[in-house]
Design goal:
heterodimer, A: alpha+beta, Cyclophilin, 2 domains, 7-stranded mixed β-barrel, 6-stranded antiparallel β-sheet, 5 helices, 15% helix, B: alpha+beta, Gyrase A, domain 2, 7-stranded mixed barrel, 4-stranded antiparallel β-sheet, 23% helix, disordered C terminus
Chain lengths: 331, 221
Amino acid sequence: MRRGAGLRVVTGGLLTTVQDQGRLGALRYGVPRGGAMDRFALFAANRLVGNAPDEAGVEMLVSEVCFEVLQPSLLALTGAPIEAYWNDAPLPLWTTILARPGDRIYLAGKRHGWGARSYLALAGGVEVPVVLGSRGTHLSGRFGGLAGRVLRAGDLVMLREQPNDPLRRAGQPWPAEARPAYGPKPSLRFTAGPHQHCFGATSIEALAQAELRVSDHANRMGYRLDGHTVELTHPCNLPSLGVLPGVIQIPPDGKPVLLMADAQPTGGYPIIGVVCAPDLDLAAQLLPGDRLQLKPIGEDEAIEARRDYARWQATPLEPDDTVAQLALAGG
Amino acid sequence: MQPLGEGALLLECATVDTLTNRSMLALADQVTALDLPGLEAALPAWASLLVLFDPLCLTRARLEAVLSALVREVEPAPARPARVIDIQVRYGGEDGPDLAEVAARLGLSEAEVIALHTSQIYRVMMIGFAPGFPYLGPLPTALDLPRRSTPRTAVPAGSVAIAAGMTGIYPDRLPGGWHVIGRTEAQLFDPLRDPPTLVVPGDGVRFNAEAQRRRGAEGGR
């Protein structure tokens, strides 16, 4: 075992990458914000294991993934409600565990009705070089994370710092009431975008009433949505302008595109609305075929949503003795 | 000036020209230099500026007031680029598969297209679409063509292309809807460099035809 190695990848899964909270400093060079799709889940996982919330962790698209633990490690798996095991026992999600060398962390690739992405944080954080201000993997640019690529069998996940006092937090759960409103068919709240003159007068109402589905054209850059065509009443030939995750663009075919973490930072399609930042984490938990709704809100409500989110992020964590003992006995 | 979600302000200009672009670039630099808690990033584009902020630290009203004051006083960035980057291009043939069609559609010879494309210094209006992709303009009006009706799923790295009054360089293998007229070996993007791009907004770019492989010049008329 190499010194500082926390995990060995046994099964890499479909799309397993190192991510953090992303990079804002290189937008003007055409580099996307990137980072975790579900920022809250990674934030919470980091806090659970005692890391700074912007440490890097591992993002996994729901699929079969397996890690071997190489040294005593505080871990937390958050995000989608998936079937996961710690050796032979079910792995408690959104809870800190103390894993021992030789333990296996296994994600079976099955979700319970909904969910798309899981996040694994390790006490000490994941050690990969900081590129353009972030440790996050930018896959199409082949930089960031582990050599700019997905994790695969045989890779070692190195720890950035040797954690001290690993026992202290074992068994710590993240309270369910202090998480975004994850679930099937989420309602994503959005504020109106700047190009309403391109659309019919009732376009926002029509979009809000539509039964939308994530199409097969969905990845970390964005989701093309099925189920509704927005009426473009005026041809809008816009010069490319800055965009951000959450923007709902309407290309000429009228099918909405929701921009996600790896969206390019500029775009030229008219923008009908912008999903408020907290609800992007709900969107991150959607797979092709999943249903969703878009709900128009005002700016005040969107800011209130950010306040709620900040409160959940700051939720006090107190070890619960019963759970702590359970987590220590497990595995 | 309009909100783009609860955490961004978009300043869009009605006039899309070089002067507007110079103003946006100057504004972006001024905004970036502000010491304003809650301000996250400023992204200049062709004729707009996107400012990201944390609405729990900084209200939109306050940010709008600050930006309005800057807009009133803004001095456009200099028209004359601080530096000019020369880019060597192999035009036509496999490197520029659309050169013949472009020439035919514009009623020019391939040599005339090359001569026009290399005839001036372009301004880097913005970088977008992909890491390090420069939007260069304005293109000589004789080269004005809309985008390809069917975009290519992949264009090789280094492809030099034109469309919609602009010219650009694909820094990597990417899907592309522009007309590819040549190719360069220049490395447009390196994430380990600071800045990571070969050119930055406000720079000048001059294309030079590589003499040894002037396939385009022999092509159809």
